[in-house]
Amino acid sequence: MKFNRGGLICVGLYASYVLFMLVVAYLALDGKTRGFFLALSALPGWLVVGAMPEAPMEWLLVNYYPVVGFGVYLVSIAFAYLSGCILDKIILGTAPTLERLDNWWFDRVHRDDR
User: Fold this and answer.
1) How many angstroms separate the CA atoms of 10 and 96, rounded?
2) What is the pTM of this model?
């Protein structure tokens, strides 16, 4: 299975964003600010879960389970990957010469010295 390069780039950007938000949440002085930054770190997942009619957001936040937190981050990673795939297709669809330039650059950088 070959992964989409644009999707992997967006997942990497999202992972760095999550790590930054977790560091900021760790350095927060009070619990409300810490909770705000923790919720902000998984914002795409919370938006998807909050849009589901069977799972009201208040119930999920009050009855918090570790599985919900882990699942929200997985949904966020999937959302970032799909967004990156869509952006990659849009960019390469409007400028197809970028794909040739991208392949040329990667071949030049990752050339084998045989």
Assistant:
1) 20
2) 0.74
36-76 residue pLDDT tens: 888 888 888 888 877 777 766 666 666 667 777 788 889 89
- Residues with Cβ within 8 Å of 3's Cβ and at least 6 positions away in sequence, in order, are none
The shares of helix, strand and coil residues in the chain, as percent rounded to the nearest 5, are: 80, 0, 20
Say how far apart CA 27 and CA 17 lie, in whole Å: 15
Tell me the backbone φ, ψ of residue 24, rounded to 5 degrees: -65, -40
CB distance 79 to 87 below 8 Å? no
- 38 half-sphere exposure, CB direction, 13 A CA radius: 12
* Identity at 107, one-letter amino acid code: D
C-alpha–C-alpha distance, residues 35 and 75, integer Å: 19
- Residue 111, burial from CB neighbour count under 10 angstroms (0-12, 13-18, 19+): exposed
